[in-house]
Structures are given as C-alpha cells and as structure tokens.
Amino acid sequence: MAAIPKTHRPIRSYVLRQGRMTAAQQQALDTLWERYGLAPAPHTPLDLDAVFGRRAPRILEIGFGMGDALAELAAAHPENDYLGIEVHRPGVGKLLNLLDARQINNVRILCADAVEVLARHIPDAGLDAIYLFFPDPWPKRRHAKRRLVQPPFVALVARKLQPGGHFHLATDWEDYARHMLEVLSAAPQFVNAAGIGCYAPRPAYRPQTKFERRGARLGHPVWDLVFIARQPADEHP
Is this structure's pTM higher than 0.85? Predict the structure, then answer.
C-alpha cells in the first residue's frame, strides 16, 4: 500500500480520534487503497482527467465520515466523479469496502487535511461542487477558532469552484448554522441560492446519514446552506 501522507497546520479543524480499526477496515486499507486512494506529491496539483480517466463533473466531499453518504451519491450519479477527503482511517477503510462491494468506480479518496488538499492539489476552478456535511461544530466558545468555515477557507473554496459551481453545507448545530450563514453571506465570491439570509431546503441529492436520521427522530433540526460561486464579473467590490 502506498503511504498515506501525514499533514500538519497550526490550527486544525479536527482532532484525530481514530477509534477502533476493525480487521475488515484494515484489510481494505491494505488491499484497496491502491485502487481508490490518492497520495499526490507535495505541492503537485492533481490531473483529475487522468485520475478518473475521463472528463466529467467533479464533486468533492470534505469529511465523509464512514462514507455511507458518499457511496450512495456516487452510486446514484455515475455521470459524476467524486473526491472524498477524510482524516480518520477507520472511515476510509469503511468507504473502501463499500466501494469495492458495490463496484463503484467514480470515487477517489484522500486521507489528508482538507485545507492542504484544496490549496496544494486541487486546480483552481477544477470542481463543480464542494460538499461539507456535518463538520465538527466546535461548540465551546474557546474552540470556535477551530471551525472550518472561516473567511480564508471560504475564499479558498471559491477559487477551486468553477463559476456557477456550488458549495453545499449542512449542520445540526444552530449556532454553527448561523455562523456559516454569516460568513458565506459576507463572501463576495458567493450568492445564496435560497435568497439573502435564508437556509435551503435539503436538496434531494443529499442522502440522510444514519446520524441525521437518528437526530430527526429525536427532533433535532438540520440546516442546509447552498451558495453559488459567482461569475468573476459579478463579484462585489
């Protein structure tokens, strides 16, 4: 198996809580990573046409967890190519097994820091959509600086999306939903697809996760946000 690179940055939006790696997950990492995994050289942009062997709409999911939603998306939309980023190796192993069992061929995985992957390995205007579903909300005030959705990150996302591409976020933490809405509404590179100050209804393409369904049974609401990357001439000063 090719080595999965370790990456570092001063403030991370995640903590590596690896949990227990099952034998099946470890076997998947040992035997399937070469097929589905990507470990690009430092500061080397990915040639996505070469990676997937075709030209197709390209969608990136940041933090796919155990991979159920990403596998469902890819199986339902074989016309798209999907990149998934996750730092937790048990989740990577689980997704590898899902892809192999269902013979899903339009997904590639990176086990690395999402900010570094975007900055170093994704070509500018190389993606049609970026999904960020249920990121760590860092609910304690002293930890708020760790939240991934901050102005510099939003500007980076905008660079990587094609004009007209969309950034779709979802969270079940109301305070984080308000934070996301505030940060994205202030970003001149984006326009709110649902209207100024509004959250979006859950798009039909977004699968509900097991965690989300459990929360719904307990009465926990979910907030979706969909922002569209402006054409360069449309950006506000």
Answer: yes
